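hey so i finally got around to running the thing on that chain from the lab meeting. sorry it took forever, my laptop kept dying and i had to restart like 3 times. anyway pasting the input first so we r on the same page abt which one it is
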Amino acid sequence: MSLSKTEFIIANTVVQSTALLPEIQLHLASEDMPIWQMDDAAREAAGVPLPYWAFAWAGGQALARYCLDRPGTVAGKHVLDIGAGSGLEAIAARMAGAAVVEAVDTDPFAILAAELNAKLNNVEIETSTEDLIGQPGGRFGNWDLIMIGDLFFEQPLAKHLEAWLRGLLPTGVEVLIGDPQRTFMPRQGLEKLITYAVPTTSALEDSDLRNASVWRMVE
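ok and heres what got predicted. didnt touch it at all, straight out
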């Protein structure tokens, strides 16, 4: 009997916190768990996309830490976490007082993981697998703040994402990016707010420590 998506997530992760965010618990997979050892053929046979949701990426951790330390950034706002993965940034925003948080990811495993993680932390977030890149607003009206954690890893997506975000800036939407300066992150029109040294794993990153910054997109 095959596992449901929720059962698969629970079976392949351990509830834990990261060193940078001890107040948030997540269903995460360690590098020695089978989910990270599956090759592309095995994942395709199991119907499982690359499990980006099973790891707390450095940029997302930086953005979540920033929200928790500076709750005025999100307090009372309608926040969108695009490419939400585990839902880490969305959970942090809700914990810091955001009025509405939408966590959006086209991977249904990620959305289920985000929902499980929100329950772990006793917060409510709205979730969707809809591709909102290019859209002017969400189900609950226009966004006040859009959060982007670790999405600039692929050129076509990065170009599409940046064009959409820059088109929203004149409407008053604020954009915060958490990123360890991945290859296709924008190089202009960003204001660095803070940098964190984020413990990570060399099995998934190129180092056991990544310097990840929070950036504000500016016109």
